[in-house]
Amino acid sequence: DTLRTFTVIVHMKSNDVPQAEVVGVTHGFTAPGQVVMVQPKKVYEQGFTDVSQMHQCQWCNETMNTRCEANASAGTHLVAGGICLLGACCGCCLVPYCLDACKEQKHYCTKCGQLVGVKKFLF
After folding, report:
1. At residue 92, what are phi and psi to the nearest 5 degrees?
2. Which of 24, 87, 88, 97 has its CA 20 to 30 A from that of 32?
3. Could you give phi then psi for residue 51, rounded to 5 degrees?
4. C-alpha to C-alpha distances, 8 to 65, 78, 98, 105, 114, nearest whole angstrom
5. E strand or H helix at 85, and its extent?
């Protein structure tokens, strides 16, 4: 029997409708009734920093510098709330929203555009 393994990437469009794309087919042989398990790929949450870095993409296997995007996270809101509760001067609680170091950093592959890693702020 011939084994066919399909690698499928699901893209979420702006209207939240999943778009599937077959990116590769592997041919091989297997015994009748044999089950082949494929390890799912995941987004890494450790080993990433606030700046772009070299990484081998787990989706397309390209070695590249990641593209970073900073986004406010629950940790950012917590720090801003803490500053506000401490009675800091008006507007000081907005400082965490202006500093990338107080935000979650998402790292993307520059070739395929997939999310490869996340550096969380606080939790």
Report:
1. -65, -25
2. 24
3. -120, 165
4. 24, 38, 38, 26, 13
5. helix 74-85
pLDDT, tens digit (0-9, with 9 covering 90-100), for 69-123: 999 999 999 999 999 998 877 788 899 999 999 999 999 999 999 999 999 998 7
**Angle at the Cα of 36 from the Cα atoms of 114 and 40, rounded to 5 degrees:** 20
Q: What is the side-by-side order of every strand in the sheet holding 67-71?
A: 67-71, 104-108, 115-119
* DSSP-assigned states of every residue in 14-59: TT--EEEEEEEEEEEE--TT-----PPP--B-SS--SS--EEE-TT
C-alpha count within 13 angstroms, C-beta hemisphere, residue 83: 16
Site of tokens 């990484």: 55
First to last CA, the chain: 48
- Distance from CA of residue 93 to its chain's centroid? 28
Query: Does this model's pTM top 0.70?
Result: no
Residue with tokens 């999943």: 18
Among 23, 100, 103, 102, which residue's Cα sits nearest to residue 60?
A: 23
